Automatic annotation (TrEMBL):
This is Carbohydrate kinase. PANTHER family: HEXOKINASE FAMILY MEMBER, PSEUDOURIDINE KINASE-RELATED. It holds the Pfam family PfkB. It comes from the Bacteria. GO terms for molecular function: kinase activity. Belongs to the carbohydrate kinase PfkB family. The keyword rRNA-binding does not apply. Transmembrane segments: none annotated. Keywords: ATP-binding, Kinase, Nucleotide-binding, Transferase. It comes from Glycomyces niveus. Residues 14-297 form the Carbohydrate kinase PfkB domain.
Length: 298
């Protein structure tokens, strides 16, 4: 089973006529839903609000088959994100997070990472940066990484996360706790303006991860390992928008490595095999491409 820790977000996505269409999103929630829909046992560690949107989020997880043992149902409102889609299909966001359900993690009982049951823990996005959830998640991950692999997707949103220097400091600390990191080229440009992707990836590898995967939009993706650098092209599609594409990629990457039997601490040497990583990238790229053909998160 894969444990995914983080937030649900209601994305307000532009619709015809100047209207806004609310859709269920949030990076960690999207990843959990995508994994569960493909039959990968997955549980979300997070919270949902007590409003109409929260009930809609809950139904989404039921329909997808996401395990809800560690989703806390609260009376708080749901987190909202306004997506502004540019001509190239990319999206920028404004968020409403104050007092919402997704970051109220004080005194929560988080699941024990029993390697007989849990294949890996994935975390990232807003819940890894906004207090008090950020502190709770970091402490949990720091303990869990001794038992199971850890995946981290920063999913940088400076409009909600705050000062770039502080976000960078926290990102580098969390990278050091991870076994695998998936990050977008756009995220890296926000954190390290003017610095080459390969320079950043190699710096991160030195901090501890076994694999750093960078998605490059329609240019594909590239994986950095101490033994190799593996590139993968992106399938050509009729682009609608890129909302949820990175999450779809991450779900494909994690799902393939887990289903193939390579997501275990004692099998990490297989990631040094270029063909193993290439197969994971190829599958993840196909899922990301499919996500770009529908409006909002799939």
């Amino acid at each position: 089973m894969i444990l995914v820790a983080g937030e649900n977000v209601i994305d307000l996505v532009p619709a015809p006529g100047g209207q806004l269409r609310p859709t269920c999103g949030g990076g960690p929630a999207n990843i959990a839903v995508a994994l569960a829909r493909r039959g990968v046992p997955t549980a979300l560690v997070g919270a949902v609000g007590g409003d109409h949107f929260g009930r809609r989020v809950w139904r989404r997880h039921i329909a997808a088959g996401v395990r809800r043992d560690w989703i806390l149902r609260t009376d708080r409102p749901s987190t909202l994100g306004l997506a502004v889609v540019s001509e190239d299909g990319s999206a920028a966001y404004d968020y409403w997070t104050a007092g919402t359900a997704d970051f109220a993690w004080e005194h929560r009982a988080l699941p024990a990472p029993d390697p007989a049951v849990v294949d890996l823990i994935h975390f990232g996005s807003l819940a890894a940066y906004l207090e008090p959830s950020a502190r709770a998640i970091e402490h949990w991950i720091n303990r869990a990484r001794r038992a199971v692999p850890i995946s981290f997707d920063p999913n940088i949103r400076l409009s909600a996360m705050g000062d770039r220097a502080k976000v960078l400091e926290r990102t580098e600390r969390l990278v050091g706790l991870a076994t695998l990191v998936r990050v977008s080229e756009r995220d890296l440009a926000q954190l390290y303006p003017g610095t080459a992707v390969d320079e950043i990836a190699r710096k991160w590898l030195e901090a501890g991860p076994e694999l750093v995967v960078v998605t490059l939009g329609d240019a594909g993706s590239v994986a950095f390992h101490r033994n190799h650098v593996t590139q993968m092209t992106a399938p050509a599609v009729d682009l609608v928008d890129s909302i949820g594409a990175g999450d779809a990629f991450t779900s494909g990457l994690l799902g393939w490595l887990t289903s193939a039997g390579w997501m275990r601490l004692d099998r990490l040497p297989a990631w040094g095999n270029r063909s193993v990583v290439a197969a994971a990238l190829r599958y993840a790229s196909q899922l990301a491409a499919q996500a770009c053909t529908v409006p909002g998160a799939p």
